[in-house]
Sequence to fold (446 residues):
Amino acid sequence: MRKIYKKWFLACLIVCTAMTTTYAQRLAFNNSLETGSNPDGPIVVGQKITLQVVAVIDASWVRNISISLTGDGLAGELMKTTGEGVIQERAVMKVYFTTPGYKTVTATASDYNSATYTVMVNKGDPTDVDFTIPTGHIYNGLPQGIGSITQTENGITGFGTVTVYYNGSQTAPTNAGTYTVTADFAGGDNFDAATGVPLGDYTIDPKDITVTALGGSSTYGDSPINPGFTADGLVNNEMVSVLTGLSNDFNVTPTTPAGSYTLNVTGDLTNDNYNITQRNTGTWIVNQAPTFFTVNMTADEGIILLPSPGIHAVTEGGSFTFYITLAEGYEGRTPQVTVNGEPARIQLRPNGYEWVYSIPWVYENTNVVVSFASTGNEIPGGSYIYSRDGRLFIEADTSADLTVYSVTGQVLTNRRLTEGLTGIPLPNGVYIVKLDKVVQKVSILR
Fold:
């Protein structure tokens, strides 16, 4: 290869810019170092400075000089590289140091030459540092703090023991809200001690919830209780009672007409830990009140009723059952029952001394009369003939042929009776009643 003689001189200029202070030293390769002054003192950990390195060459054919910086605890990034004419290459880097002490920066221009720059790096002052305060914390019912302390821009630690205060208290906050955060630094590997250092504002956002009005039903005339509301999204086993200021606008009273009513969750939530994102309605149904009829029971002396004689209310379509026993001295007599004037067959219970009767469906006001027959006689075999309230009653214990005659012998009715009680309305008078082979005279009186 053709030998080319060349003479070259390579120089490097480093300009250090830290905050408002500029440090300048002139560096030259080949051990030709010209020391400049540094009148404003050293820099500190994490403080960013700008280094500008210029390589000067006397050979016009040299191109694309690659300049780099290395050093203990040095971090940063290349900002730009520009060529000026044919004799110099300039590189600009913004760098900082992650640890304190005397630091040597080595500038290298490709493989041609290198030079060094020494600077003193002191521990940082926490009061000059910007800190990262976490965001996105949401109320969860538990204490929450900012966590570990790091420098915002470079993520450097080494503060030593840090005591954090939230609105002046060391207790990490639980409730949603914004807190002023300060800290006391004991001092560590990379930073000096400091007290009352403001770190910024820390916010716990309220938890989003959905509230729903509860519904239900009642009957007209009832006094229902407010059903309240539910909430989806509550945390830490909290109940709806913590949602102060809210209520179900339930207003159903005994006189509220039958129908459907929409219920709402109303009011302003006064618990700052929660934020209502949706309010759902509920439905309350007031049903029509049932129709009631009365059963009015009366009884002759010596007859004991359960329930007692008097007026009893029965729901429309409901049944009504009562029991009959005889008072002392009336044993051996048989009570008779009429329902709205019609005879009713009662049943003797297995205990042998108590009768029972049931009206299966009540659809009107009903009068029940329990009495001993005013006239009449028991027929051998267990049947019974008597009169009451202008009617002839035959209580047959089996099927039988019935013929009723006037006193002149005229046949007034002739029929086949089935087992049970039969009532026949007749005018006032005296009648001859034949039941199978038994003949009996009966008087009808109104």
Remarks:
- The two ends are 157 Å apart (CA to CA).
- The mean pLDDT is 79.
- Residues 104 and 118 are 4 Å apart (CA to CA).
- The first strand starts at residue 11 and ends at 18.
